Amino acid sequence: METADVEVGFAKLQGEDFEYYMQTYSIMLGRNSKKSTVDVDLSSLGGGMNISRNHARIFYDFTRRRFALEVLGKNGCLVEGVLHLPGNPTVKLDSQDLLQIGDKEFYFLLPVRSLLGGPVGPRHVVSGHTSAGPLVPYHQYHSGPGSGSGKKERKGEGIGRVDREADDQQVLQLEEKDVVSSVANVLSDLCGPGEWMPMEKLHSVIQENYGNVWHHSRVRRYLTMEEWAIPEAKGKAWYGLLMLLTKYPEHFVINTRSKGRLTLEFVSLVSLLS
Any idea of the CA torsion for 42, 195, 187, 259, to the nearest 10 degrees? Predict the structure, then answer.
């Protein structure tokens, strides 16, 4: 959501004569045609004749926890002077990387404060812009339930049990990251920065998109009340999902509103003021 004097976005493209704020986690760059449009029409910005309709995609790679560039146009893209062509691996983007598509040059910029929380360290200064570095990685997760039973172990059992618990914890962490990624993508598609979605609606969309895809244990943990036998979870099938999102304030903002005895929860992606 934009105000009259403040632009918000997850990242920014800055050229000599244009600026574009990324308000979703994925944008397409290229040129508009009668049949289709792109997020950033470089041909209208003086990019020349060598720009494909879908020339490149900039997106947030949740698996690697960074922004990346996927090259689609046959003439390729320059990133920091290096040519990347279609079919090449995606290109990691750091703040203030210089990109060139066709005849158009522009910088990829991240806010001084990272999307994933914490200050962003200095990298280099270009055209008077504030220095900024790559995204800060995810914080380490806390140990889950059952990782410390407090019981003494017989010799020979301890190492095997610790290994099993470490494996279980790693699986749970991977599952959490996947659920967080799914939720972030849904919110990015349906809400702009600063817009709120009721948890009940988010649960409904996640249930519709992933209820038949996720393992039944994951569905039970995040989309039902089965593992939450507490008064606060009564009537809220999304309670497990809500508890997960509260662990990631670097991604999500939770807002609660009371209506009589009823408490309503709303969620929004962390938006960045530029």
Answer: -170
Question: Half-sphere exposure of 23 toward its Cβ, with a 13 Å CA cutoff?
Answer: 16
Tokens of 89: 């691996």
The DSSP line for the chain is: ---SS--B-SEEEEESS-EEEE-SSEEEEE---SS---SEESGGGT--S---SEEEEEEEETTTTEEEEEE-STT-EEETTEEE-TTSPPEEE-TTEEEEETTEEEEEE--SB-TTSSBPPP----TTPPP--SPPPPPPPPP-TTS-------TTTHHHHHHHHHHHHHHHHHHHHHHHHHHHHHHHHH--TT--EEHHHHHHHHHHHHTTTS-HHHHHHHHSSTT--SGGGTT-TTHHHHHHHHT-TTTEEEEEEEETTEEEEEEEE---B-
Residue 72's pLDDT band (boundaries 50, 70, 90)? very high
pLDDT of 86 higher than 90? yes
Residue 265 CA, chain-centre distance (Å), reads 21
- Kind of pairing, strands 262-269 and 26-30? unpaired
> Would you state the pLDDT for residue 57?
95
Q: Which amino acid is at 110?
A: L
Q: Could you tell me if 94 and 123 are in contact, meaning their C-beta atoms sit under 8 angstroms apart?
A: yes
| Radius of gyration for the chain, computed over Cα atoms and rounded to the nearest angstrom | 22
Q: Is 46 left (phi over 0), alpha (psi -120 to 50) or beta?
A: left
Q: Report the C-alpha gap between 233 and 119 in whole angstroms.
A: 35
Amino acid at 84: H
| CATH code, residues 11-109 | 2.60.200.20
